[in-house]
Amino acid sequence: MTDDISDRDFAQAALDRLPVSARPRDLERALIAAYDAWTATRPQGRWAALQAGLRHFSDSIWPGVPLWAPVSAFAFALIVGGGLGATLPSIVNDERPVFSLEQPASFSLSSLDVTQEDL
Amino acid sequence: MHDPDAEEVAKAGRGDRDAAARLIARHSAKLFGLAQRMLASRAEAEDVVQEVFLRLWTHAGRWRPGGAKFETWLYRVTLNQCYDRLRRRPTQPLDEAAEVADEAAPPGARLDESQLGQEIARALETLPERQRAAILLCHFKECGNIEAAEIMGLSVEALESLLARGRRALRSRLQHLKGFAGDGQ
Prior knowledge:
The complex is a heterodimer. Chain A is mostly helical. Chain A has a domain at 66-96. Chain A contains 4 helices and no strands. By secondary structure, chain B is an all-alpha fold. Chain B has 2 domains: 1-89, Orthogonal Bundle (Rna Polymerase Sigma Factor, Chain: A), CATH 1.10.1740.10; 103-185, Arc Repressor Mutant, subunit A (Orthogonal Bundle), CATH 1.10.10.10. In chain B, 70% of the residues lie in helices and 0% in strands. Chain B contains 9 helices and no strands.
């Protein structure tokens, strides 16, 4: 531990003696100019507002991913859901016996169908 | 936790030039210092700061307060840019590396302040990049271990281990200098 502390003090003293690196005089100006260039080229108007709104909505659902990911997931879920919704009821209906008052009964209430044990 | 930059970032993302200028004034010097010491090149450090701010503007509109602290994100992006540049540098042939090592001051040499500074900078450059980053963050940014670990994407224990190894390596590389760091001469 003692060694570690002295290493720390040694490094501290060494780094304190490093030459100070002055920031380039024009750096801030260049950064502002880059900002101006960015604001000039970024999309503006209704389309940009729509994109920003979609992006914000997408971020609230699935943060940090590109817009196509939640859109694809939603479209996939919609297709699967729609497909199941369209096919499943007909499959289920095919298997279920149909009763209608206008059709002759397909079952009988006569005693032949009832066993002794049931009574 | 209140992030003093969050509001400015949102404004800059909406095109507020004054907010952007305030962010630049607040952070560019420190980021430049870190990049310059990481890369040992002023020109490359300038490029890194430019790239970091450009990335900031493109993400500013989507910045959400409540996540990572803005400054932590900014330093992390800067470090990643530095790592990328260091990895893209061509590796030095062994015979050239030996010549560079010969530039170091001979053992026991007494150096003036500027020579000493250069010697220390050279020793710092020879440290592995992550050790260098850990040392620089803790020393120049004056951030605590928790914040530095967050910036580097490490656990605090891993950062402390990096720091200890980095300091030990720096010391061994500078041990030959006289009149330095309380050696009593």
